[in-house]
TrEMBL record:
Domain of life: Bacteria
Residues annotated as domain HPP transmembrane region: 18-176
Annotated protein name in UniProt: HPP family protein
Ranges annotated as spanning the membrane: 20-37, 43-66, 78-97, 143-167
Length: 180
């Protein structure tokens, strides 16, 4: 019975009050960041096909950074290392277990978490970066370990630079809170 009681939760939900200006800054920042990454990819590579500088997990990263720039998960070290570490774990898992996608998927995400934890660089969207290396299709798998550098690493760095510029334009926001 205790097992099922845990699933009820123990706290009341709190309603956050978001300042309209902060919400607007977040929305515009997200638009600029993802639009900027996509536009840069189009300029550099001529298409939004996999393998440039943008991957879907960066959308989740952008939401974390622009909605919660003070969160430890949002900080530059966590953002960049989280994606690089996770991409490496994902590619390694995909190569080791080519014939067993279910096993490669589980290993990719769990090993990414372990390695991010050991590096003290947890960035939750990194789990998606690891998984995407396994299930991302032929274009992603063709990249092999290049996926770690591009799109995962370079995409995260470009997102970080956009966040550094845009978030600090607001008089009420600061990014980052720390670099290490």
């Amino acid at each position: 019975m205790q097992f099922f009681k845990k699933m009820r939760g123990c706290q009341k939900r709190t309603h956050s009050t978001t300042d309209f200006n902060e919400l607007l800054w977040s929305i515009i920042g997200l638009f600029v960041a993802i639009g900027g990454l996509s536009g840069l990819q189009l300029i550099l590579f001529g298409s939004l096909a996999h393998g440039g500088i943008i991957i879907a997990p960066l959308g989740a990263s952008a939401i974390i950074i622009f909605s919660s720039p003070n969160s430890p998960f949002s900080q530059p070290r966590n953002l960049v290392l989280g994606h690089i570490i996770s991409a490496f774990c994902g590619v390694s898992s995909a190569l080791i277990f080519k014939e067993h996608i279910w096993l490669a998927s589980g290993l990719a995400v769990s090993s990414a978490f372990l390695c991010m934890q050991l590096a003290q660089a947890i960035h939750p969207p990194g789990g998606a970066t690891a998984l995407f290396a396994v299930i991302g299709g032929a274009n992603i798998k063709q990249l092999g370990y290049l996926y770690v550098l591009m799109p995962a690493g370079i995409g995260a760095v470009v997102l970080m630079v956009i966040a550094l510029i845009f978030i600090n334009l607001s008089k009420n926001r600061q990014y980052p809170q720390y670099w290490r």
